[in-house]
Amino acid sequence: MFSGKTSRLIELLERERFAGRKVILFKPEMDKRYSENMVKTHKGIELDATIVKTNSSGIKALINVASDYDVIGVDEAQFWDENSGIEEALNNLASSKKIVYVSTLNKDYKGRPFSVSENLLAYADTIHSLTAVCTKCGEDAVFSQRMIDGVEESGPRIVIGGKEAYQPRCRNCFVVQ
Ligand SMILES: [Zn+2]
What we know:
This protein has 177 residues and is of the alpha/beta class. The protein folds into two domains: 5-123, Rossmann fold; 132-169, Wheat Germ Agglutinin (Isolectin 2), domain 1 (2-Layer Sandwich). The protein contains four helices and eleven strands. A hairpin with a 6-residue loop joins strand 7 (132-133) and strand 8 (140-141). It is globular and about 45 Å long. The mean pLDDT is 88.
């Protein structure tokens, strides 16, 4: 979170486009922070995105569309359903002469690994590990602290009514709940 991973992904895809390759970017249906058909970074850089469901039918759609492209980008991969098979699907695309770039968050707001991300990291040829800046002390942040109404709160996955936000935190400032 706030580590610039979407910006890096877009930058890498733009390089491929300049190199003359056909590029497509997918984003999960549930990531509705910004306008529907765009992936927008916190810095405001935009790229057209194709929205796909995060289940096995979404994977079929992704594979179908991807066949017409040289380079496949996938943003916010941690949002894909566990056991959807997205990791294997992307690995297979990479093995069939496609260039695949994925951005993913490795840990959830409780500091637990996303299993989709664990598998993607294992499949990846190259990993660019990015950090954010801890909002408490300024050190490198590798955790996302969930804040509800301004208080550190892990609580249930679904929050009703409260104002939810996330803060990057380093290991020392991350409050384990
Ligand atoms: Zn800190």
